[in-house]
Amino acid sequence: MAEYSVSPTGEQFPLPGPQEAAAEMKRLRALVKSARARGQEIVVVMGVGFVGAVMAAIVADTVHKKGKDKGKSNKFVIGCQRPSARSYWKIPLLRRGESPVKAEDPEVDPMIARTVLEKKTLTATFNPDCLALADCVVVDVQCDYLKRDLGNMRSGEADMAALEATMRTIGEKIQPQCLVLIETTVAPGTTEFVAWPILKKAFAERGIKSVPLLSHSFERVMPGRDYVASIRDFWRVCAGCNQAARKRVEKFLREVLNTEAFPLTVMDRPIESETCKIVENSYRATILAFLHEWSLFAERNGVDLIKVIQAIKMRPTHNNMIFPGPGIGGYCLPKDGGLGYWSYKHILGFEDGDSVFKLSTAAIDINDTRGLHAATLVRDALRNLGRYIAGAKVLICGVSYRQDVGDTRYSGSELVVRRLTEMGAEMHMHDPYVERWYELELQDTYPAPGQSWARFFRNQQGLKNARIEKDLAAALKKAEAVILAVPHSAYRDLDPDWVVAAAGGPLAVIDCFGILDDAKIRRYFELGCEVKALGRGHIQRIKKEVRAR
Ligand SMILES: NC(=O)c1ccc[n+]([C@@H]2O[C@H](COP(=O)([O-])OP(=O)(O)OC[C@H]3O[C@@H](n4cnc5c(N)ncnc54)[C@H](O)[C@@H]3O)[C@@H](O)[C@H]2O)c1
Q1: Which of 65, 154, 156, 507 is most buried (most C-beta within 10 Å)?
Q2: What are the distances in angstroms from CA 535 to CA 46, 302, 484, 514?
C-alpha cells in the first residue's frame, strides 16, 4: 500500500519508491547540464525546513554583482529533503513554486515562486544522489537538544542523528572539491571533531586523497516580517576547517549575502563560529531569565517592572533589555545553551561542566518554567473573584512565541495551557496568526513521538481537539478569565468595556507581557474585574484606589 506524506493543509503526496530514483536523477542531470551551460554554480541545500527553504530561495535569487554578467543568475539550487512521511510534502510543494514554510514576510512566497517558475534556478528533490552534482552543499538540517525533565536541562542530551546521517550521505556522494557549509546550530566542536572526521572517513573509503572542504556559518534567521532580510541582509560569521575551506566559504557568502552593507566576520576556527552562536543565544536567554527574579520581586513589592525596564532603557548601554513574558520559546533560545553545556562534556571531554556552567543552564530552566507562574496568577485572580480554576472557561490570547508571528514552537503559552488544563480549566485559544496549533493537535507525534510537553502534565488528552478561534468576541463569550499572553498588535488596544461586554460580565484579566496601560487596568477594576500581571506589583495600588472610591 502506498505511504503518504501529508502537508499542513491536508494535501496528500505518495512517498516516492526506489524505482523513481533513477528517473529523478535523470531530470536533475538535465537541469544541471543547462545550468552549467549558463555558467551557474550548483548548490545543494540539505533540509528544506524553516531555514533551508528560504536560504535555498535566497541563493537561487543570487545574481552576479559585477562584471559582464552583472544581473544574471549565477547559482542553480537543488533543495534536498528525506522522503519521510513527516517531511516529504515539502518537495512537491517547492517544485510547484510554493513555500513549505508559512511566513509573515511578504517576500518569501514571491521569491520562491520567482526562482522556481520564472528564473528556473530552484528545484527540489528527495534523491540525495544530487549531491554528486554539487559545487557547494549547504546543510540546514536540525540538531535538537532533547530535555528529559521540565526545568532541568542538565538531564537532557543533544540529538545529532539527523546531522550525522546527513554528513555520512554527503561524504559518500560529493565530488572531492565540493565545499560543505554547515549552517545548523551545533554543539561547539561538532564541525571539526564530529562532521569533519565523518567526511574524511568517507573520502578515505572512496580512495579520495584530498581533504574535505568543510566550513561553518550559523543562521540568525528571525521568523516574522523580515524573514528574508534576517538571512540575506544581516551580519554573518563564518570559519573553515582549513585555509582552503575558509577561502571558499568567504567567497560563497560574499556572493549570496549582502556583505557589503552587513560585513562578514571570518573566524580562525569553526569552534569559534559555533561558540559565537551558542554564546549570543545563551546571553539573550540569560538576561531574560535574570528578569524573572526581578519580575517576582516587582509583583510582591508594588513595582511595575515594565516601567522600570523602560526607565533603564533610556541609557543607551542598556537599551536591549526585554521583558520575558510567560516564557521564551522559539526554536533556538530554549535549546542552544544546552548544546554548549552538552558539548563541553561529550565532545570536548571535560568532567566539570556542572561547576562551570551555572548561569546558562539555570537560565534555560527558569525560562522553561516561567509559564507555570503565569498559571498561578490565573488561579489567584479567579479565586479573588470567588471562582475556581476547575471547570472555568479560560481564553488565552496569543499562542505563538512572540508578537505578530505565527511560530508556536516552544511558546510560553503552551506551558500555560498545559498547566491550566491539568488544573481542570476549560481552555480556549485565540491567535490572529496561527491556523493550527500542532504542538497540541499532534501531541502524540510532534515534535517527535514522546517529545511533546504533554509528557510533563496529566489530563492532556483532550488538548488534541484544541482549535484556534479567530473571532475574538465569540471566543470571549462567557469567559471567566482572559490571558493576554502575547503582545500581538490586535491585543494592544482592546477596550476593557468591549472585552467585558463580549464576555458577558466581569472576568479575570491576566496580562503576561505589559500589554495593559494603567488606564486600562483601572477601567477593568471599575468594571468589577480582577487584574493580575507578570512583573506588575503596582496593580494592587490601582485596585485599592478604585475600591476606595
Ligand atoms: N527556525 C529558526 O528560527 C532558526 C533560527 C536560527 C537558526 N536556526 C537553526 O537552523 C537549523 C535548522 O532549523 P530549522 O528551523 O530549519 O529546522 P526544521 O526542522 O524546520 O528543518 C530541518 C529540515 O531538515 C530535514 N532533514 C532532516 N534530516 C535530513 C537528512 N538526513 N537529509 C535531508 N534533510 C533532512 C528535515 O526533514 C527538515 O525539513 C537548526 O540548527 C536551527 O537551530 C533556526
Answers
A1: 507
A2: 43, 9, 14, 8
**H or E stretch covering 482:** strand 481-484
Write the pLDDT tens digit of every residue in 169-188.
999 999 999 999 999 999 99
521 assigned to some structural domain: yes
Give the structural domain span for 426: 284-548
Best mutation site among 13, 44, 46, 50 for ligand 1 pocket (most ligand atoms within 8 Å of CB): 50
Q: Give yes or no: residues 352 and 403 share one domain.
A: yes
**Best of 180, 219, 222, 438 to mutate for ligand 1, by most ligand atoms within 8 A of CB?**
219
Q: Using the mean position of ligand 1's atoms as its centre, give its distance from the Cα of residue 539 in Å.
A: 43
Alpha carbon distances (Å) from 370 to 89, 298, 364, 459: 35, 15, 10, 20
Q: Are residues 130 and 43 in the same domain?
A: yes
- In the chain, how many domains are there? 2
- Give residue 29's identity as a one-letter amino acid code: R
Q: In angstroms, what is the C-alpha Rg of the chain?
A: 25
Whether residue 355 lies inside any domain: the answer is: yes
pLDDT bin (cut points 50, 70, 90) of residue 8 is confident
Residue range 533-543, pLDDT digits in tens: 999 999 999 99
Q: Return the beta strands (E) in 74-132 as ranges.
A: 75-80, 122-125
Evaluate: CB of 140 within 6 angstroms of ligand 1: yes
Q: Would you put residue 218 in left (φ > 0), alpha (ψ -120 to 50) or beta?
A: beta
Express each pLDDT in 81-101 by its tens digit: 999 998 999 999 999 999 999
Distance between Cα 158 and ligand 1 center (Å) = 14
The atom number, within ligand 1, closest to the CA of 332 reads: 43
Q: Are residues 200 and 301 in the same domain?
A: no
Give tens-digit pLDDT for 283-310. 999 999 999 999 999 999 999 999 999 9
Distance CA(430)–CA(113), nearest Å, equals: 31
Question: Residues 438-444: what's their mean pLDDT?
Answer: 95
User: What pLDDT, on the 0 to 100 scale, is given for residue 92?
Assistant: 97
Does the residue 501 lie in any domain?
yes
Residue 423, domain CATH: 3.40.50.720
52 lines ligand 1 (CB under 6 A): yes
pLDDT band at 1 (very low <50, low <70, confident <90, very high): low
Q: Are residues 331 and 197 in the same domain?
A: no
**Dist. CA 140 → ligand 1 center (Å):** 5
CB of 439 sitting under 6 A from ligand 1: no
Asked if residue 472 and residue 333 are part of one domain, the reply reads: yes
- 87 CA: nearest ligand 1 atom: 37
CA angle 206, 44, 77 (to 5 degrees): 145
The answer to whether residues 296 and 246 belong to one domain is no
* Any ligand 1 atom below 6 A from CB of 83: no
